């Protein structure tokens, strides 16, 4: 069987993890020193000042939005999300009581159609926009950043499917106010479960640290702890259970961080393999209705290869029959999902609906071979 994903945790990683667990002094398994090391390593790798490690990419989205809301960063309650995205890009603002506005996609990189996005910015004047970089494809970051600046919209980057992708040699996840990544099994890197939030804003970073762990100050630098305790007249003892912001428990563990510290070293090789596979797919597939952008100045760390074809059902049945794992094109049109019906049931998103009806994606990962790609594309090209 040709699988959609291949685990990035190998036997050497497991053996090293076992050795770490079997030390004479049992290491701390919950969030501890290794988590801080992982956060520093990922921030340096990506190119931001700060990184916060949480228990999933979905938690990263939820925590980012909650911290924006409760730290007073949003000028109003409106947020724009893509029609082609993931469930938690839409459900997180809904759960936080934010007014969620949806935007249709384009058919070259599957991010928001810029003309539609500007119209929304003009009409609705939202506070924030979640840009989803779908399947490792690279949006037109120059235009998107300019639009956000022009209309005073906070840019948030969902890079959960695009770790390692670059726009003009600058990492996705470094263009906006904050960004989120996933470390789930089958993604570019894995810590079994896990996710990151990255930002360059120190005050926001402090809010994330507090809200990740109940709202207390234990993860803050000492000078910030003293500042808060003085402001709220709180003793060092009472500060152990003092809560400054409404928080969650979204912590990951040092066990996962151990795997993450090893995983980051693998990323560059994995990205090269994914990009080479993507280019080969683009050259071999003759009947894809998507005209995907492949700018030589960009790096496309392709998560999976998207296809749109009016004979989708026939193609996927043939692929499955020959042992090729295949999926719908992400969630298709999020506006059509039951959780979104009341909000968006009267809105039409033409391109998102095209993907919903005719879209699917096929495997791309670091272990995929050229012969497997050739085998897959030969099946698709029959239709």
Shape descriptor reads: globular
Order of helices and strands: HHEHEHEHEHEEEEEHHHHEHEHHEH
Sheet with the most strands: spatial strand order = 1-9-8-5-4-2-3
Compute the CA-based radius of gyration.
Answer: 21 Å
The appropriate CATH architecture of the largest domain is 3-Layer(aba) Sandwich
CATH superfamily of the largest domain: Type I PLP-dependent aspartate aminotransferase-like (Major domain)
**N-to-C terminal Cα separation, in Å?**
21 Å
Number of strands: 12
Q: What structural class do the secondary elements suggest?
A: alpha/beta
Total individual domains = 2
CATH topology name of the largest domain: Aspartate Aminotransferase, domain 2
CATH class division of the largest domain: Alpha Beta
Measured as a percent range, the helix fraction is 25-40%
Beta content: 5-15%
The number of helical runs is 14
List low-confidence stretches.
none
Give the rounded overall mean pLDDT: 96
The largest sheet is: 7 strands, mixed
Write a structural description.
- The chain is α/β, with parallel strands linked by helices and 383 residues long.
- It has 2 domains: 11-265, Type I PLP-dependent aspartate aminotransferase-like (Major domain) (Aspartate Aminotransferase, domain 2, 3-Layer(aba) Sandwich); 267-380, Alpha-Beta Complex (Aspartate Aminotransferase, domain 1).
- The protein is built from 14 helices and 12 strands.
- The protein has a 7-stranded mixed sheet with strand order 1-9-8-5-4-2-3, with helices on both faces. A 3-stranded antiparallel sheet has the order 10-12-11.
- Helix 2 (33-46) packs parallel to helix 9 and helix 3 runs parallel beside helix 4 (87-95).
- The model has no long low-confidence stretch (mean pLDDT 96).
């Amino acid at each position: 069987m040709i699988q959609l994903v291949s685990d990035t945790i190998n036997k050497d990683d497991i053996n090293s993890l076992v050795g770490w667990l079997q030390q004479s002094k049992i290491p701390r398994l919950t969030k501890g020193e290794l988590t801080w090391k992982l956060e520093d390593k990922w921030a340096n790798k990506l190119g931001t000042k700060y990184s916060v490690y949480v228990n999933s990419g979905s938690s990263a989205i939820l925590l980012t939005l909650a911290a924006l809301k409760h730290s007073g960063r949003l000028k109003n309650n409106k947020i724009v999300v893509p029609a082609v995205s993931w469930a938690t890009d839409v459900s997180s603002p809904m759960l936080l009581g934010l007014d969620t506005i949806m935007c249709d996609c384009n058919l070259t990189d599957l991010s928001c159609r810029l003309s539609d996005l500007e119209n929304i910015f003009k009409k609705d004047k939202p506070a924030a926009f979640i840009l989803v970089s779908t399947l490792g494809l690279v949006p037109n970051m120059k235009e998107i950043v300019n639009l956000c600046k022009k209309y005073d919209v906070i840019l948030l980057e969902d890079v959960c499917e695009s770790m390692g992708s670059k726009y003009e040699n600058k990492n996705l996840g470094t263009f906006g106010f904050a960004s989120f990544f996933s470390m789930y099994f089958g993604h570019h890197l894995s810590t079994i479960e896990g996710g990151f939030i990255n930002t360059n804003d120190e005050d926001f970073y402090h809010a994330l640290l507090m809200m990740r762990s109940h709202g207390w100050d234990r993860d803050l630098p000492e000078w910030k702890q003293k500042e808060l305790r003085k402001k709220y007249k709180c003793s060092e003892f009472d500060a152990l259970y003092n809560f400054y912001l409404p928080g969650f428990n979204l912590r990951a563990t040092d066990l996962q961080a151990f795997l993450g510290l090893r995983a980051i070293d693998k990323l560059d090789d994995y990205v090269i393999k994914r990009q080479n596979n993507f280019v080969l797919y683009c050259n071999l597939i003759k009947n894809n209705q998507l005209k995907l952008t492949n700018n030589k100045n960009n790096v496309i760390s392709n998560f999976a290869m998207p296809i749109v074809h009016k004979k989708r059902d026939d193609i996927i049945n043939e692929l499955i029959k020959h042992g090729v794992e295949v999926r719908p094109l992400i969630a298709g049109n999020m506006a059509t999902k039951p959780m979104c019906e009341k909000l968006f049931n009267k809105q039409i998103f033409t391109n998102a609906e095209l993907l919903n009806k005719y879209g699917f994606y096929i495997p791309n990962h670091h272990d995929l071979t050229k012969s497997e790609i050739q085998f897959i594309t030969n099946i698709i090209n029959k239709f």
